[in-house]
Specification:
Distance between the termini: 34 Å
Helix content: 25-40%
Number of helices: 8
Largest sheet: 6 strands, mixed
Order of helices and strands: EHEEHEEHHHEHEHEEH
Number of strands: 9
Shape: globular
Strand order of the largest sheet: 5-6-7-3-8-9
Structural class: alpha/beta
Radius of gyration: 19 Å
Length: about 240
Amino acid sequence: MSDIAIDVRDVSIYYRILNNMSVQRSFFRKKVRSEVFEAVKHVSFQVEEGGILGIVGKNGSGKSTLLRSIAGVFSPNTGVIDLRGHSVSLMALGVGFKENLTGRENIILSGMLLGFSEREIEDKAQEIIDFAEIGEFIDRPVRTYSSGMHSKLAFSITAMLKNDIMLVDEVLSVGDERFRKKSLAKMKELINDDDRTVIIVSHSIETLRELCDRVMWLHDGEMREIGNTSLVLEHYLKFMGNG
């Protein structure tokens, strides 16, 4: 049996939501009514080293929240996430970029946050820029980027600066058709490495079928099913009325 790379045990993540009151008004009230929204509810699973797990579910099911917690963007409210000492990178829109810095500057910053030395980043910088295909925008602030350009740069950084664990959140489905095909080919190349562990969040059933060893179905924050890719996706599509 392979070693475990990702061990998620009884993880719950929740937010407090202010009810019909602006943040400014809340400062002047001693008691502010709030309710708790449970985004992820007591989820447990493991991914073996070299495994490729897909996560599927309708919008608001907790997929991206769970992925960001595994990446260390924030801690779960309860439960444990153990990466067994492996390095991890998150490939997602809106995560990790400083909007007022240029794309080139964000390559350096993102690489350092992923644990790479400045020399290692410089050695890969041109490869990242070439793959991203955003032209002169590489020297413009990221706040001027379209969602497609943002996605291309995010994918390129994570794909070229390779960590033990890759977490991919919908990035493969953004951008023009040619870049999507190029990204899918690159992802196949990356995950063919038996030492690299991958979790992919996607609404693309075909992408999950093609890339994943197993699939987990999240629904309203709870794990409904995990297991064989074809079987879980069949049950999910039937539940959603597409089977």
